[in-house]
Amino acid sequence: GPFRPPRGLEKPPEPVIDHFGFAEDRTFKQRYLIADQHWKKDTGSILFYTGNEGDIAWFANNTGFMWNVAEEFDAILVFAEHRYYGDSLPFGNKSYTDAKHLNYLSSQQALADFAVLIQHLKNTIPGTENTPVIAIGGSYGGMLAAWFRMKYPHIVIGALAASAPIWQFDSLVPCGSFYKIVTEDFKKSGAGCSETIQNSWAAIKRIVDTGLQWLSHTFRLCSPLKTKTDVINFREWLRGTWIYVAMVDYPYEAAFLQPLPAWPVKAICKYLKNPKLPDRLLLQNIFQAVNIYYNYTGHASCLNLTQTTTKSLGLRGWSYQACTEMVMPMCSDGINDMFEPQKWDFHAYSEECFKAWGVRPRPSWIPTFYGGKNISAHSNIIFSNGGLDPWSGGGVTKNITDTLVAIMIPEGAHHLDLRSNSPFDPTSVLQARLLEVHYMKLWLQKHERVKTCPK
Amino acid sequence: GPFRPPRGLEKPPEPVIDHFGFAEDRTFKQRYLIADQHWKKDTGSILFYTGNEGDIAWFANNTGFMWNVAEEFDAILVFAEHRYYGDSLPFGNKSYTDAKHLNYLSSQQALADFAVLIQHLKNTIPGTENTPVIAIGGSYGGMLAAWFRMKYPHIVIGALAASAPIWQFDSLVPCGSFYKIVTEDFKKSGAGCSETIQNSWAAIKRIVDTGLQWLSHTFRLCSPLKTKTDVINFREWLRGTWIYVAMVDYPYEAAFLQPLPAWPVKAICKYLKNPKLPDRLLLQNIFQAVNIYYNYTGHASCLNLTQTTTKSLGLRGWSYQACTEMVMPMCSDGINDMFEPQKWDFHAYSEECFKAWGVRPRPSWIPTFYGGKNISAHSNIIFSNGGLDPWSGGGVTKNITDTLVAIMIPEGAHHLDLRSNSPFDPTSVLQARLLEVHYMKLWLQKHERVKTCPK
């Protein structure tokens, strides 16, 4: 296979469980994948994927960009798994037991793991001591890549932060932008599409009093809806489905969150052309649409409200992170978007977090720690954004300085630029990748100059 | 008095005890002092003292520089106390009970407190929202000032790091430099001085078998020496005394660590002119020398081996910090210095730490986290160093970039530049202070330009 550990790296690194305190002194095994086929000692670099909330092998397989440019950068590829995800569980199968065991799941601890791992690699692989490292990540991993450069500029010379909503915090951006972008995606993917979804919420409301059985049957649910909570979950599940499809609205068949056809939002909108249908007919169409997302392969015998994406994504860990640091205010008004009106209610959010995990979120900690909008003192970060990606609303979409640059990919969904080259790629993503490579090479050249020509 | 809280600031800020984890969600009361007599809304700045290991009122009284320049900068002065010192005890009088309670004593937590405090001030004092903040600190507080700018450049526009040995870690500098500088101070302060101290160690060795009582009596010790451990402590106490005197070798009478005459090393060396004396005579002179440090006022009825400095300094907390993050390797060889040969023995150090605090030091964490010698990506930090200061061996003594600058004060001891102007100040410290003000004004001008003239 493409992964193989270089000599001496047979043993995994064992970062401490708590980088920021000394009472907990144990270590854990962190998984990472490494590919050095294209590595050249004298000219090479390390492209370091800052793993996010999921199985690292799955991310490695969905980050073709790094494989595509490995040769051009004479690069070692490293994919580092984020603690508490995949196989990198600090307390094994007890890691998720309670708030005490989860206490070391944070972006700061993850970044420290990455820093320690890179030093371990440089100390272990002969010839890498002075090799420049570039951080690459998407989504939360993109935030981590950007923050890694901000907090550890001595370890990475730059970062490619793809679809990284580093401003989706506190009141840095309007809370409604996310759902607005989802809605726009559906609006431009077929006449009547967003209106049909908009109308579906009232249709469900009218039907639940008498038609729970019909609804469960029509949507082929694995567990039939019975209680009010079931119905709330059903509506949340529908909302989540539209969000996920918008995020993975790629121009070709792909299986990231689920196996899907090319341009899945368009495929879904084919079923949602008539927003004026009677409730049952409209909801049957909604089912057809949803069924594209959950059953494109045709293998699903029923639809499961609790399994909305690939199991490789660590939704449970992310739910904890969202209840601590990663508080991303969202709201919908039903006017500028196709969703039910829902205000951002921090108090209710905090209560739910306390019930679920025994912790209280700290909504202003991320901006305080990572700088919010005031990041111009940093350098060498590319923020790329997909125009179709709901997360672009919280992203950096304009250049901040000459070395903190934004790239827009109007036809791109969630970190399309990090995926493998494809004949179906829109021009905008090809240009984005060229520009990304261009900036990364600039950093390397500048680094080279600094190294070889001191005053 | 000079300190007064501006309106609305009557309530102290209450930072969380653990910024980096969510299981411990309690807060504590952090003390800070504030003086706004010279504050001018439109042109002003905030000079923020990053408190180090001790009582903040004591530091405020020994940081006359800030008071001297307050008017020139139209500045609010803020002196923030470091958690676990002075009155800022996270768990009250239980804060030092065990490793569990001490778990939140670290530089990272302290910096986060400072960040949160500054945001609290800006949110509370009308007109300060956009006021630029400059961090100022000395010694460990100087390291904190530098690290604060490195990690939170969105909060402070620059830092004055006085006598900050940010490189006294791992193997960034030779472990012998510290004792070598102490020795040089004594060497140039009187003929025979360093040789007398050098010879004293063997004299003590020869005398302890039969002369413990004589030694205890001669040195007027409060508790007479009895065991081997007592003798070890006695030698350590002597060593510590020489170090402390070198650190506070100021050109005028001062009472920082202890009340002392002007140029105390010279005053001490007056008693240490003859290194060839017989043991008892030589040690009687050593006592006279030591007595200058411990009893310049003449009020001490006996000398106490366990009280080496003012009680305002939190030696206990520092001992914990030295056993966790702040591992500063030191060694002496008895050839290049006047001390007994002592190798740096990390294993023994770690064992002692485990016995004393139940924790193991992590010697490479500080360089990993704060960058070691590779800090050129940062900006706007002044590193000032005293030529007489043993800590200058671990300091930044050469410019790194145009905005990471070093200032040397050949006649200066430990952060002399942060002390009040004095008619006895050597020219070099006056020049240093002018240069510091010059750089601080440059940062403010540049910040102003960025704020008012975007592209």
Automatic annotation (TrEMBL), chains A, B:
GO MF annotation: an example: serine-type carboxypeptidase activity
GO biological process terms, semicolon-separated: angiogenesis involved in wound healing; negative regulation of systemic arterial blood pressure; proteolysis; regulation of blood vessel endothelial cell migration
Major subcellular site: other
Any one Pfam family match given in the protein's UniProt record, by short name: Peptidase_S28
Keyword Cytoplasm included in the entry's annotation: no
Keyword hit for Hydrolase: yes
Gene Ontology CC entries for this record: lysosome
Location relative to the cell: Lysosome
Reactions catalysed: Cleavage of a -Pro-|-Xaa bond to release a C-terminal amino acid
InterPro entries: AB_hydrolase_fold, Peptidase_S28, Ser_carbopepase_S28_SKS
Entries under Gene3D superfamilies matching the protein: alpha/beta hydrolase (3.40.50.1820), Serine carboxypeptidase S28, SKS domain (1.20.120.980)
Functional note: Cleaves C-terminal amino acids linked to proline in peptides such as angiotensin II, III and des-Arg9-bradykinin. This cleavage occurs at acidic pH, but enzymatic activity is retained with some substrates at neutral pH.
Subunit: Homodimer.
Protein name, entry field: Lysosomal Pro-X carboxypeptidase
Annotated source species: Naja naja (Indian cobra)
